[in-house]
Amino acid sequence: MRVSTIHDPGSESGTKHEQILQHIQSLKIGTKISVRAIAKALHVSEGTVYKAFKEAEASGLVSTKERIGTVRIDRKRRDALDQLTFGEVAQIVDGRLFGGGDGLDKSLHKFVIGAMELDAMLRYIDEGSLLIVGNRVSAHRCALEQGAGVLITGGFEPSEEVIRLADELALPILSSRHDTFTVASLINRAMFDRLIKRKIMLIEDIVTFSRPADVLRSGETVADFGRLSKKTGYIRFPVVDERGRVIGMMTAKDAAGSAEDTPVDKVMTRQPITAAPNITVTSAAHTMAAEGIDLLPIVDRHRKLLTVVTRQEVLDAMRFAGKQPESGETFEDLMWAGFMQSEEKDADDAGISYKGAITPQMSGALGMASEGLLSTLMAQAARRMIRETGKRDFLLESMTSYYVRPVQIDSEITIKPRPLELSRKFSKLEIEVLDRQGLAAKAMLTAQMIDPY
């Protein structure tokens, strides 16, 4: 199935709302626009234009800023998510802007801590970097001249000369009351979080929004369904109304036994399952598997069809994501970091087991291993066992944990996941946590299987 936007010249020009959005899209990037000017140019009310502006802003077509107005912008690419802007840094560190406000939207690719002699410092500063430094006026000026932004720590303020230079070069100069170590830690954490977000694949990352999708329209018949099915080779299509909104799903099963002149509106499946473009690929896979559907319409907040995605495309995307190198560690990754597959085999156990230690950071309120942590470790062990033995993954449906006794800090533990039932669609596992004294915790886990590999 092609993955692309619905396109119908008649419906797009059929409403004033659509005409306004088309007009906005036709403008060059950077064009300054206003509600009044577009209302006058297109002969529509300012209220109608205002509503279209709000939708365009939500879609990333325009941006409205205080004292600047509304400007046509390019859609932000997700591959730039890992780059913070100077404006975002200011928010992260509770910074105060003194100059260079026009550069707040610029991205920084690294930050440099100014804890060295000026000559040595300048070797590390280049365009697009951020200098984090104390009350060193010469360093502030040199960094700006090198094309870098400046963040002054300790609550100090820049000189009037430096502020004028920042305004002239459109490079932000900020001040934060926090010390250098604190602001560097805050910025580093934010960058790290961006790397993790970038690794999470969304539906909008795998679909194409430029070609028309195959759809049926309200008022068309079963005969039209048959012709479209024969032409494309597919047996299910979204049904849309005159404004492109999804109102149903038409399949071969719906058409079976109906006369060819029967309107699809009478036999289609109403209120079909749809999804937004910003949901994760994993969430879409779970929805499609749970509902037994092979085609998922992707819609905007008004249920207007943007594209469609097939189950195979979702699984292919998950397979691709699973092969990519790690770009940031989540809390689950950090918990599991010290665990490895055990090479030792018990006489009565031919399965896979994992060994590791309970570190002080894993403790709960009473100084023992946190119950939540043990549950996470058991789920992680089950997931890795299924990945290693079946080259598959699962979506957790339920997990019941039992805690037999507390696990001491610094204890060596073994986690043993045992499959009780494994099929193409479902899995049921028993997981045990053992320390030197024997069984410490146990869980029963049921999950829905998926095939990302």
TrEMBL record:
Q: Which residues are in the CBS domain?
A: 209-266, 268-326
- Highest taxon listed in the record's lineage: Bacteria
Among SMART domains, the record links this protein to: CBS (SM00116)
The record, for InterPro entries, names: CBS_dom, CBS_dom_sf, Diverse_CBS-Domain, DRTGG, HotDog_dom_sf, Ser_kin/Pase_Hpr-like_N_sf, Thioestr_dom, Tscrpt_reg_HTH_GntR
Keyword terms of this UniProt record: CBS domain, DNA-binding, Transcription, Transcription regulation
**Pfam name, any one:** CBS
UniProt KW Acetylation keyword: no
| Gene3D superfamilies attached to this UniProt entry | CBS-domain, Hotdog Thioesterase, HprK N-terminal domain-like, Winged helix-like DNA-binding domain superfamily/Winged helix DNA-binding domain
| GO function terms (MF aspect) | DNA binding; DNA-binding transcription factor activity
Know the name of this protein?
CBS domain-containing protein
